[in-house]
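PROTOCOL LOG
Step 1. Enter all chains and additional molecules of the complex.
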Amino acid sequence: MLSSVNPSVKAMTILIPGVLLAFMFDIFTPLAYLIFTVAMTFILSDIPVKRYLAIFSPFIIVALGFSWMTMLYTSDRFAGGEIVFSFLWFDITEGAIITAVSLGIRSLCIVALSLMFVLTTDSTKFMLSLMQQAKLPPKLTFGILAGYRFLPTFRHEFEVLRQAHRIRGVGRAKGIRGRIRQFRRYSIPLMANAIRKAERVAIAMESKGFTGSTGRTHYHEMKVGRKDWMFFSAFVTAFFAVVFASYLFGYLNIFGYQF
Amino acid sequence: MSNRLTEFKEMLNSWKLKEIVLMSLLGVVFAVIYLMFYFFGMGLTNVLTPFGLAPFGYEIIFGIWFIVSIVAAYIIRKPGAALVSETIAATVQVLLGSPAGPRLIISGIIQGLGAEVAFAATRWKNYTLSVLVLAGVSAAVFSFVWGWFISGFAALSPGLVVAMFIVRCLSGALLAGLLGKYVSDQLANTGVLRGYALGKERQNKREKKSA
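Step 2. Run joint prediction.
Step 3. Record the structure below.
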């Protein structure tokens, strides 16, 4: 079901809680919304749990790293409460722990929202929808799609370059300096080829009558329907419901101010 | 808002199609590089975590995320190149499946604006090294303000935030400004940029020399 939601609406839906979460500095709000997001992802799509966990778990480590640093270097405004434990010369307070855990869970919540979008959205449909719903100029849309289409060919070109180097007797790079030189040896020709392609594509598009005017018809018509708005309102309503619940339980903390 | 939108469209109309396609392609190529650095930064972060300095893993390499602005503006030299190319790179990262998700597009717009402001200050006429470096720093400042809000730096002690800010600005100057100019000049040396502003400028210089 998630993959059939209009991509622009889906992106908007994820953006709103994604930005508003930045105001919340308590544990309850991001945690509740994280649980809601993950639950909805599995209910509304058929992503295998194993695959999801494989993608999601590295971010837990990153979140722990960020939490750990926040705990050590909490600003005075957030580091209230009793000292819970000491580490080297750092005194970790209750407030510091709450803030750190909150920021960690918040980043996981953003990852969960993003994965819900990324794992269920077709990239071509997203671009077409940006053009038809978000009024992105066709010149840009088709330029990006053409560039995107070239990505798989880079791997092939890379292989060709490597073989060409090998035939000339260029060995493997040693040391950091050699690595950098090797990177340059590959990246500049790859990009030069890409630029040549861009020029050719532009000529091809113009020769086929592409003017970039917005008054054009579309082969794939992207529409926004009732289902899309239901999806949108469900996620935004859930966010405000979570914030309200957090307020009722006395957890809500916006930029350090307890409510 | 709609006024701005028509202005934006007029600006795009002054562009040649091949410049737009080049900018899009640069956006796509650098999106791949950005995504590789995202995971590289994750590795750096894990190394620095035991010292409690995790986010510096990203701060050190943050400049790389502004490089397409500098490259596109330096090659094409038209208003909007820095902003639009960075936005494209962010959008393509979402297409490729970046874990940062659609919010990345906002970050891209803000970083691109940061670089664009520096070029706008010279009325899009000056593309010397110092302006390019300034554009990298300006993008770093813009992105830091956004990061302060979105990543909750408010909860960090001011000393650490200032240190992160300085590292990010330096990274923007070096990895975006300096490296961006270097990469573009290398590309111009291959001769593929003859049809664009940077290549034409080189040709003019060469002709003057021989004349």
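Step 4. Note key features.
The helical segments of chain A are 7-20, 28-44, 49-72, 94-118, 123-132, 138-167, 175-207, 226-248.
Strands of chain A lie at 83-87, 90-93, 253-254, 257-258.
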